[in-house]
Specification:
The structure is a single chain. The chain contains 5 helices and 13 strands. By secondary structure, it is an alpha/beta fold. The two termini are 22 Å apart. 45% of the residues are buried. Bound molecules: fe (ii) ion (FE2). The site of fe (ii) ion has 6 residues, from loops.
Length: 274
């Protein structure tokens, strides 16, 4: 099983770098489409848009509609749960009328569990007792397959960058970490939010953070020729070894193989790379 993980596209239609964010997102989807073999799924770990607006989601949905693989999305702190749910309702996996954007996908050798770590009061993560209960229920709903869990906020201390803790308190993060270790079936945790690559663990569970797709918002040191290249992760599952993660760099390739048509002012070219 192959999972392409993307994160933090931060689509914003009226920021100075709006076109670049759209271009980064579209080029990444084109690059994923060109992978051989094609990934089984694409998971977007949140901050799909920057202001939670419907028109921003319309742009994101238009870009994701070009994806060959099924797409699953999480909510990040910049997302708006109601508008996200409305925009992606046709995909069928988001529970309507739920307080949280969390769900399990059962169609693959590895179960995929997406969590909602949004806080109502800050950009940091939250995980209340209700969400712990929901996670335990999702984990226990099937007992034969390994599980990959996706979160926006990483549930481990990130030792690069200025802030190690991406939850409101260490107690909240510990609550989530305990729930993830509720059985031995969670074999990997994949997150976003930090805008730079990071690795950690939850007990014996390996965990990674994928850099953000929006190159103008990415943190960390990149050589000049990579500054405009989006970066994403390809997670390949082996039943014996678990997941191996490859960092994929979207380069500057031949122009214009695709167009994203939402409004004339933001129709942009897409490149296939490498
Ligand atoms: Fe975020």
């Amino acid at each position: 099983m192959i999972i392409a993980q993307i994160s933090d596209t931060h689509i914003a239609l009226d920021s100075p770098d709006a076109d670049q964010r759209i271009r980064d997102f579209a080029r990444t989807i084109a690059d994923i489409n060109a992978l051989d073999p094609t990934p089984d799924v694409i998971v977007h770990t949140g901050d799909i848009v920057h202001n939670g607006r419907r028109d921003e989601y319309a742009q994101a949905v238009a870009i994701l509609s070009k994806a060959r693989a099924p797409v699953y999305v999480l909510a990040g702190n910049k997302d708006n749960r109601a508008n996200l749910r409305e925009a992606f309702s046709a995909y069928g996996y988001l529970t309507p009328h739920s307080d949280f954007v969390d769900y399990a996908i059962e169609d693959y050798p590895v179960r995929l569990i997406a969590l909602d770590t949004l806080s109502s009061s800050s950009n940091k993560g939250d995980f209340c007792a209700e969400r712990v209960r929901r996670l335990i229920d999702l984990i226990d709903a099937e007992t034969s397959k390994p599980i990959a869990v996706f979160t926006h906020h990483p549930p481990f201390e990130v030792t690069v960058g200025p802030d190690r803790l991406h939850f409101e308190t260490s107690e909240i993060m510990s609550r989530l970490r305990r729930a993830l270790q509720h059985t031995g079936r969670v074999i990997a945790v994949f997150s976003g939010h930090v805008h730079r690559a990071a690795e950690g663990d939850i007990g014996s569970i390996p965990a990674t953070v994928v850099p953000c797709i929006a190159t103008t918002l990415r943190k960390g040191e990149y050589p000049p020729h990579m500054k405009m290249c989006p970066v994403y992760h390809v997670h390949r599952f082996d039943p014996l070894w678990g997941f191996a993660t490859e960092t994929r760099i979207v380069g500057a390739g031949p122009p214009a193989v695709n167009h994203v048509d939402v409004s004339p002012s933001i129709a942009l070219a897409t490149s296939i790379i490498l």
